[in-house]
Task: structure prediction
Amino acid sequence: MNYIEALQDAIFKAHGCKAQHLRSIPVNEQFKGKPVWQGIVEVFELTNHPKAKICYAWGHHAGDKDDKSRYVTVLEIPPVDSPLAAVRASIVSDYRN
Result:
């Protein structure tokens, strides 16, 4: 399974619908001039989701040894309206948890 397929699988598991890859968008989120998050956000079109037509997704290594991948999926539901907004929502969610 390649990276895009792994993200599609994560979207299906999290949101119960199929996703078609549309594009890759580089995101560089900074706070007070310092990088907080840098990476590529993959944009997917969702099939038959009741609330969203778009999902943003990306993966990264998790854990101290970086031996396990973690996939993040964020639906395009206001206020999330872009890859950058999806990254910001994920950062806020991680901080709260």
Observations:
- The chain is about 30% helix and 45% strand.
- The beta strands are 19-31, 34-46, 54-62, 68-75.
- Residues 1 and 9 are 10 Å apart (CA to CA).
